[in-house]
Sequence to fold (226 residues):
Amino acid sequence: MDKNYYVKIINGKPWTWIKNHFDKLPKYKPTKITNCKIDQDEWLKFSIEYFDNAQQSYEIPKPHFNDFARRLATFNNKIGRNEHNSFELNYGVEGDTNKVMIAMFGEENLKLLKLRPDYLFFRLLVKMPGHGVAWHVDHIGRYTEKFKNELVIDPQTKKCQYGQIVRLWFPVTEWDNGHMFQISETVITNWKSGDVYQIPFGLGHCSSNAGYVPQLTVSLTGIIED
Fold:
C-alpha cells in the first residue's frame, strides 16, 4: 500500500454505503439454542480424508451471490480482503461431503434441533490462523439452487411447503485464543464444541481466526417442520 492510496481511503470513507445499509437493519441478540454432541476427532479426520473435496475459497464475488453480495465482495477486495487473509477450506458442495456430514451429525442432534432429516445442507468451514470471513449477510442462493426441483421457497419469508428454512451455526472445535464470531452487534467467544446459534437471513455477521489454532465451524441450512 502506498501513502496516496491510504490517504484516499481514510479521507474518502468508501465504506459509508455499507455502514448506512447495516445501521438500518434491526438489531439482533443471538442466544445459544442448545448444545449438540459433536465428536471433534471424527470431524477433524473427515477434514483430512475429504481434503480433496474441499473448495479452497476466499473473498471474491461468486456466481450464486445476489447484486448486493457481489457489490460488497467487490468492495472488500478493493479495501484489502484477498486470498492472503480470507482463505478457508469449505466442505459440503463437492462429492458426497454433505451426505457424510449429515451422518456424522446424527439423528439425535437433528431431533434436538427439530430439523427435518431431508433437505439439509452442511458447510464445514476451516479457517487457518490469520484468516476470516468479512462482514456480510446470508441469503439462500446455494440452498435454493441445490433443491430447486424439490422446494418452493418464498424469497421473503424463507418458508417452503414443508416449513421454515433456517440457518444455524455451531463450532466443531472448542474456542481458543483469537477465535470470534459476530452476529449483528454481538461478538461470540468462549464457545463449547456443539454450541448452536441461529444466523437470521439478511443480518450482518462475520468470523475471524486471529489465534494460532485452526478454527472449524459449521453453517447448517435446513427446515424446521411446522
